[in-house]
Design brief:
Elements (H helix, E strand, L loop, with lengths): L28 E6 L4 E6 L11 E6 L1 E3 L3 E3 L6 E9 L2 E7 L9 E4 L2 E8 L5 E5 L23 H6 L7 E4 L11 H5 L3 E6 L22 E5 L1 H8 L3 E5 L1 H12 L17 E5 L14 E5 L6 H10 L1 H13 L10 E4 L1
Parallel strand pairs: 1-17, 3-12, 3-14, 4-11, 14-16
Antiparallel strand pairs: 1-2, 5-6, 6-7, 7-10, 8-9, 9-10, 12-13, 13-15, 16-17
Helix pairs in contact: 5-6
């Protein structure tokens, strides 16, 4: 069992962080990890279908990223608007926080914004002098490690081609590799999990079991639940899909079956704060397609739970040697 934060550290050259997407979505490289033999091979994302079997079902997260990033009119304060909680009232993250304590004001679109409350986790409740649709004038909330402001191209490329239900503050990045042509050739279904602000927060507890995830809303439709029940294997596209499916599996009565991958997930909606780290009993997901994740992140811990920490870190070392592109706009790995 790897329960220490220091177990999830690896050195990454800055040059391997993908700052922009490739010209075409499906040009990404794909490292394939074979869990049974603990071996890996280097392929292209376009080879994905060659690793699928009859009866496989691809499950993807169709959340849509909100244009949630705004700046004050003087550009001195950055806001990430998390949720509208009432007329002219919002929950948000603010940077730098020292400039916006309780009672502090600034303006957005020449409308006065005032900090009403500071929550325990540093989020702010703010009020506006008049109601505004702050997403209408916002930009894509690119992760901080990209190190640049979003531009018009990100409005398209930091969104999956199947994004449908608005509500996310970060993209389900494993889905960014898909084109309509590739997706049309593979049996698939969708879940929705709205990626929340917790995706930006690092783990601080050295004992990772002490970390608490922020709750995120998710839903699974009757159509998806039915497709999953009849699938031979479920291939989860991204860690957010894994969290939705494994949360649902724990809320659904499991059927007794001869094969370990036979299960039933009911259609449902709710919220999950599930934290997946080693050891973990996966009940719904058989194969995982995912990007490369930050050191010390809950996403790296989830992948380690699925494939084994030492094997995953060995694969990361190989990916660095082979000059893979890392993080949101980077390459991917398929874990069989």
């Amino acid at each position: 069992m790897s329960a220490q934060l220091s177990d999830y550290v690896y050195p990454l050259p800055e040059a391997l962080i993908a700052k922009r997407p490739l010209p075409q979505r499906d040009q990404s490289r794909m490292m394939v990890l074979h869990r049974d033999s603990e071996t890996f091979e280097h392929r292209q994302f376009r080879d994905l279908k060659s690793f699928l079997q009859p009866g496989d079902l691809l499950v993807l997260n169709n959340t849509r990223v909100l244009a949630a990033r705004r700046f004050s009119d003087d550009h001195a304060v950055e806001f990430l608007f998390l949720e509208k909680i009432g007329p002219a009232r919002w929950k948000c993250l603010i940077r730098p926080g020292r400039k916006m304590r309780i009672g502090a004001t600034t303006k957005i679109d020449n409308v006065t914004l005032r900090v009403e409350e500071i929550l325990l986790d540093g989020e702010r409740i703010v009020s506006l002098a008049e109601d505004l649709d702050l997403y209408a004038g916002g930009s894509m909330p690119l992760p901080p490690y990209i190190g640049r402001d979003s531009d018009p191209a990100d409005s398209d490329r930091y969104q999956t081609i199947f994004a449908q239900t608005p509500g996310a503050l970060a993209a389900p990045t494993a889905g960014l590799h898909f084109t309509p042509e590739i997706l049309a050739t593979i049996p698939h279904a969708f879940v929705t999990l709205h990626v929340g602000p917790g995706t930006f927060r690092p783990v601080h507890s050295e004992n990772i079991a002490e970390h608490r995830m922020h709750a995120e809303s998710f839903s699974i439709s009757p159509e998806t639940a039915n497709k999953m029940e009849n699938a031979k294997r479920v291939i989860a596209v991204g860690t957010t899909t894994v969290r939705a499916l494994e949360s649902a599996a724990r809320k659904t009565r499991l059927l007794k079956a001869v094969k370990s991958n036979e299960f039933k997930i009911s259609a449902q909606s709710g919220a999950t704060d599930i934290f997946i780290y080693p050891p973990f009993d996966f009940r719904a997901v058989n194969v995982l397609l995912t990007n490369f994740h930050l050191p010390r992140s809950t996403l790296l811990m989830l992948v380690s739970a699925f494939a084994g920490r030492e094997f995953v870190l060995r694969a990361y070392d190989e990916a660095i040697r082979e000059q893979y592109r890392f993080y949101s706009y980077g390459d991917c790995m398929l874990i069989l």
